[in-house]
Fold Glyoxalase-like domain-containing protein.
Amino acid sequence: MLALDHIIVAAKEPKTAALAFASKNHIKTIEGGKHEKWGTYNHLAYFANNCYIEWLGIFNLRLAKQSENPLIQQLILALDNSEEGPIQFALRTENMTSFIKHFDTAMTPYIGPIDGHRKKPNGMDLTWQMLFPQPKKYFPFLIQWGNSMNVPDDKQLINKQNITNIATTLPVNEFKALYQHRIQANHFQLANTNLQFEEEKKLMFSISE
């Protein structure tokens, strides 16, 4: 089953935005690291239901603009329009190959898999792959981690709260066809949280203990 991996929040100053959110919601955040080839960097908050929030910003606009990563392109567009806040989320899979086969069979255009890499503050390498379905709207991308998932070395940095719900305006039927998952009453049950399809709302999420 697919799981929520993380929610991406566009931020001109990731640390500042993360600390403001942390103060309001009584959670812990930590420095993430730099994506050297994409010109981006992040600040993170981890949650008990095995997912996290990523405040993502740009430290080198030239590199970011050169990137063919759809997420980086989406981030640039959001920040250019002064749209700071949640812009995207990633769904975790352990079998990306099956989705590639599904997209090929359904003739769904996609970009990837794209290899990702950054160094954690402790110097360890973190690697992953991303797959971006490319219908007309920004649908969530799929992520599969390498030898280890993105979790803090100090388990005390994992917040006791959960990300309990995500609300999206994406079209239900197209979502169902892309990710081959049952949707009931506009709810899509992920392995670790609930995805709800709403009208006239931006991407939103809620956390609770």
In short: The radius of gyration is 16 Å. The helical segments are 14-25, 61-66, 70-80, 96-106, 172-179.
